[in-house]
Amino acid sequence: MQTAKIDLLETYLSLYINHFEVLNHMDTKDSPYVILDVRNAPSAVKKDQIKGALAIPAKDLPSKVNELNKEKTYVAYDWTSGTILGKQALLILLKAGFKAYELGGALEGWKGMKLPIETLNE
Amino acid sequence: MQTAKIDLLETYLSLYINHFEVLNHMDTKDSPYVILDVRNAPSAVKKDQIKGALAIPAKDLPSKVNELNKEKTYVAYDWTSGTILGKQALLILLKAGFKAYELGGALEGWKGMKLPIETLNE
Amino acid sequence: MQTAKIDLLETYLSLYINHFEVLNHMDTKDSPYVILDVRNAPSAVKKDQIKGALAIPAKDLPSKVNELNKEKTYVAYDWTSGTILGKQALLILLKAGFKAYELGGALEGWKGMKLPIETLNE
């Protein structure tokens, strides 16, 4: 059982990327990361997003995944880690052959740490 | 590792049902779904619940699981997705041979989207 | 698929310990549990913690894990269950041969149930 626990934790944790890693590359030219906002909500409801994020709602991702850049690493987030949208997006991205992670802590965690966001205009 | 990630995501996501799917059948006669409130709290603490939910606290589920209907699909939820009660209930239901899911986003997500709830009388 | 779901739920749930189990031993002499606060934040930000917790930020755990007691069972928690810090700490502890769990519901759930906390002095 100990081995099953360790295997599960290792695979589960490998789905996530830490906000620090993303933050370190945020304002660099040629950052390897593209932050992907997969919230299924209009801008008026979302109000703001992680600075520089590309907004593709999870429901639209299957039809738009082929427009993405295989050179980049995608970092998907939803409102909180308590939803399944981040993992649904991640599954679509990984199955399509992209490098991708879910953002640890999601938008809630990012805002809780006062990390850079930007207002959305509707 | 990519295969292990995809396998984990597919199995993990298969535990959940989306609120839209549940909502679509909510007021239909003979809905295949029974929404199951598994919060371990008295009504006075719970205050409200998802409209039409059947309240069986997770701690009582082992002794009550045989009263459930094998024709239905059970959708369990707790306060938030951050607790383990929804998954504990799901495990009891699946092991007893029921069709069951955990509600994506839990009660917190349902309320956040202003979906139908009902007040509980004490 | 039913078997894969049940296997995943059983392993996933085996990572967690219920707050009641921890609470039952809280004020007993020779409690088998040591509650481990793994938040990566200074005391001024943390403000309070679970009563009697040992604070070792997850980032410091790899270098401090050898100071821990193999007779005890460690119960790690972060702010919420939505972060990955609790699981990162758990992986470090299990790989080092310690008995360890993540606290179901994390600090957020503990406080939500009004369980004992203590103020931190800065």
Automatic annotation (TrEMBL), chains A, B, C:
It comes from the Bacteria. Residues 29-119 form the Rhodanese domain. InterPro entries: GlpE_sulfurtransferase (IPR050229), Rhodanese-like_dom (IPR001763). It comes from Enterococcus alishanensis. SMART domains: RHOD. This is Rhodanese-like domain-containing protein.
